[in-house]
From TrEMBL:
Domain PAS: 412-465
Pfam families: Fe_hyd_lg_C, Fer4_7, FeS
UniProt domain 4Fe-4S ferredoxin-type: residue ranges: 2-32, 33-62
Residues covered by the 4Fe-4S domain: 360-421
UniProt GO MF annotations: 4 iron, 4 sulfur cluster binding; kinase activity; metal ion binding
Protein name: 4Fe-4S binding protein
Record bears the keyword Thylakoid: no
Keyword Iron: yes
Protein's organism: Enterocloster aldenensis
UniProtKB keywords: 4Fe-4S, Iron, Iron-sulfur, Kinase, Metal-binding, Transferase
Top-level division of the source organism's lineage: Bacteria
InterPro entries the record matches: 4Fe-4S_dom, 4Fe4S_Fe-S-bd, 4Fe4S_Fe_S_CS, Cytosolic_Fe-S_CAF, Fe_hydrogenase, Fe_hydrogenase_lsu_C, PAS, PAS-like_dom_sf
Amino acid sequence: MGMEIIDFKATKCKHCYKCVRYCDVKAIQVKDERAVIMPDRCILCGHCLKICPQSAKTLRSDLDMVKGFLREGMRMVVSIAPAYMGLLKYKTIGQVRGALMRLGFEDVRETSEGAAFVTAEYAKILKEHKMDNIITTCCPSVNDLVEIYYPQLVPYLAPVVSPMIAHGKLLKEELGRDVRVVFLGPCIAKKKESKDPRHEGYIDAVLNFNDINKWLEEEDIVIEDCEDRPFTAFDPKVNRLYPVTNGVVNSVLATEEENDGYRKFYVHGVANCIDLCKSMARGEINGCFIEMNMCSGGCIKGPTVNDEFISRFKVKLDMEESIAREPAARRQMEPVWENVDFGKRFEDHSPRDLQPTEEQIREILRMTNKFKPEDELNCGACGYPTCREKAIAVFQHKAEVSMCIPFMHEKAESMANLVMETSPNIVLIVGDDMRILEYSDVGEKYFGKTRSEALKMYLYELIDPANFQWVFDTHQNIHGKRVNYPEYSLSTLQNIVYIEKENAVLATFIDITREEELAKEEYEKKLETIDLAQKIIHKQMMVAQEIAGLLGETTAETKTTLTKLCHSLLEDGSDGIYGGGEEDITLPDVHLGSGARPLSGVMTPGNTGAGAGTAGSAGLAGSTGMTGSAGLAGGIGTAGSAGLAGGTGTAGNAGTAGAAGISGNAAAPEQKKGYVHIGSAAPAGRKTGYVHLNSADLKKPGGSGGR
């Protein structure tokens, strides 16, 4: 149930363990590095709510539930604790009642009505004198403390309900069970008490003064501007003093007719209440009536009251002044109240925790490097008074080993030293004044300074601090920057990071000197290769030029020879061997192979060769002359053998060339005159003279020879 009332915001919890330290009953468990309340151990003193520096604690509010009652048209009555007199701003206390009724409540009654009946019950017990000691039971947090942690003192608890429960019973008896009773006060333990099965159903909701102030503000209601509607309580005004220290004792004394023989005193504050319980458990207290209040200063200093703005001394004075100035109106006691039972039976609610053996405690202590008693610092940083108590809590799964701050600090320092001692990279931490705060051992290898020497130096005494200063000035990090230190023959790859909390800079230097040297060597090799390639290209160009010159000369000679050959053939044909001199032999064109186009002017002097050849299966062609895979080749065929043909002749990159040189297959059978034909068969029906260079004899049709 305690878990439902107070919870922690995990995202805000910073593991400071302050709540554990200040929880006197150690009802806060640290699990997975998160503080959580153990509901079966929490006494709801609310102290953790007030001391948490991160405001990580949250308190359940019933305000939405109360508004829901109102929307559903339920009858609602407020039972307001007397502490309102010192915690709300008003001119008359009747304005408080008027403001709350404007919110929609049917009536507003003072809890001191119930306190009057509780006082009467205490008086009866005192008069009976059956109990050795009597502990008042107005404070539900005190009741939980005894039931959970000091069950041996349960017989000393006065068997009477608190004023809140008493008032709830009175109102339900008077107004009907259907009425919703809402308690308004500064106590959070009342939330748990209202759900106690022993008297559940008498209080339907619990609000604190922060809740009600928020609601009044939402509705734009100002108490001091409200109608004065006085309370109609019947009780003696002294019962309004219950919320202040010694208030219960004073109320009892006011009704006491004769001395009952009990010594009466009050105790307030968690630590004081625990001390008293310990003393009573030891049997040191006898014959006493003791008013115990868990809140230091009484209910007026409850956990929901802001200490910053409210002084318990001023509140107490204001309450006493209000009581003296405006005594409650008296009226007769309702007859139905005579049958209300205000008794309560308290029980042993102590948890059954397993207790570790001495060896188990020692084993847990050894986990935090505590091997002998003098190793136990008992610093209390973990929240437990002694190391042994913390070890027991670890055994009972209430605490974690890592909560030992000195051990974790030592461990972190050890790990940091290990990093500094073994890191292959240079690690530096520098303060904003450029003083070296940390320096890895490997730095001695590069900078010639030991760690102890470097920690006494400023960064600028070692290296140029410009990059570090830039990070300090801009709060921007540097990643993967190459920085050379020629004076140390060192090349580095640097990461420099700003640490905001410490206002320091962390830097790691990776030695890349060897990589830089290898890269330089590789670059130089590439330059050498490029230079060598350029020399080879230049040499090749020179060779190509020489070859081109030689080929040019060969081409010219070939051209001249072919020209002379063609003219010679033409001259032979003009003697009438084939045509009997009937027609002049002309050289109209040169035919290049099967299906090739005529190549005009190829065989004329000065035009054979360069730049004019047409590539084909055979012919005179080339880029700079007559080129191809084979040039002019073979011998001159005799009659009946072959013309100018062959397999291999002059060949090369330039010059006279062709797939088959100057070659062909056979002359057209109907040819009448001589001709020059370069290619396959001569065109059919040719009448004029051609020179046909073929593998067959050049012969006149019907003749028997040729040349």
